[in-house]
Write a structure and sequence with these properties.
single chain; alpha/beta; about 30% helix; binds 1-O-pyrophosphono-5-O-phosphono-alpha-D-ribofuranose; ATP-binding; ATP_PRibTrfase_HisG; ATP phosphoribosyltransferase; 5-stranded mixed beta sheet; glycosyltransferase
Length: about 220
């Protein structure tokens, strides 16, 4: 862990654009090429920050191990990974929710027997709390395929616009969790670099207040 420079782990993909806009609103002078470069480590001119561009699911890992001091990660990824990091700010970006969904005529089949998901920990906690025993089938994508093709009775997955469910003839049964992206911090970094991190947290909270205006 470098004492004089802060490393921030950024999620590539869906969250990246929203996160860059928020960082710029917070006063970070990100270069124009930030969103298009294929470089994975980006340093800022004359500012003590460097950004690493990671797969979203890996951001909490970089932060927990101290390879990054801070990071931006979806609440879904944080809950699923259970990594030991401080969650400092709800950034209010990349909002979506997690739901149980399936074919409309499966509503009466309770408990569901087989649940396909990319989020086995979140799903198993949900069903444990409900006192229902289910078989979880871990998949890596195209989760909506599972109930259509008969691999599972239902899915636990992310819903944003609802288009994927709709186009595949599926309906939402239960809403598990509202999701947005969070600013996370490595606990040791926070102890050693508290002043600098607190300044960033404050700036991000201010920038976030702008993004929350007019949101649901
Ligand atoms: N419609 C959505 N589907 C999935 N994730 C979404 C959606 N809307 C917002 N998110 C947020 O974006 C994050 C996922 O981003 P992204 O899809 O780029 O990563 P990924 O799952 O690693 O992608 P990939 O499909 O390449 O595996 C989630 O953790 C969630 O917090
Ligand atoms: O409600 P919507 O706006 O349709 O978004 C939800 C869909 O987006 C995600 O899949 P993604 O596009 O990441 O593809 P994947 O199948 O590879 O997970 C998620 O797993 C849903 O399938």
């Amino acid at each position: 862990m470098n004492e004089s420079i802060l490393t921030i782990a950024m999620p590539k993909g869906r969250i990246f654009g929203d996160a860059c806009r928020l960082l710029r609103n917070a006063g970070f002078r990100l270069p124009e090429t930030f969103e298009t470069t294929r470089k994975l480590i980006l340093e800022l001119d004359s500012e003590p920050f460097r950004f690493i561009l990671a797969k979203p699911v890996d951001v909490p890992t970089y932060v927990e191990y101290g390879a990054a001091d801070l990071g931006i990660a979806g609440k879904d990824v944080l809950l699923e990974s259970g990594r030991d990091v401080y969650e400092m700010v709800d950034l209010g970006i990349s909002k979506c929710h997690m739901a149980v969904a399936g074919k409309p005529n499966h509503r009466s089949r309770n408990p569901f027997l087989k649940i396909a998901t990319k989020y086995p920990n979140i799903a198993s906690n949900f069903y444990r709390r409900r006192g229902e025993q289910v078989d979880l089938i871990a998949l890596n994508g195209s989760i909506e395929l599972a109930p259509i093709i008969g691999l599972a009775d239902a899915i636990v997955d992310i819903v944003s616009t609802g288009q994927t469910l709709k186009e595949n003839g599926l309906v939402e049964f239960d809403r598990l969790l509202d999701i947005s992206s969070r600013l996370i911090v490595n606990p040791v970094s926070y102890r050693l670099k508290k002043n600098l991190i607190d300044q960033i947290v404050e700036k991000m909270i201010k920038a976030t207040e702008g993004t929350k205006i007019g949101m649901d």
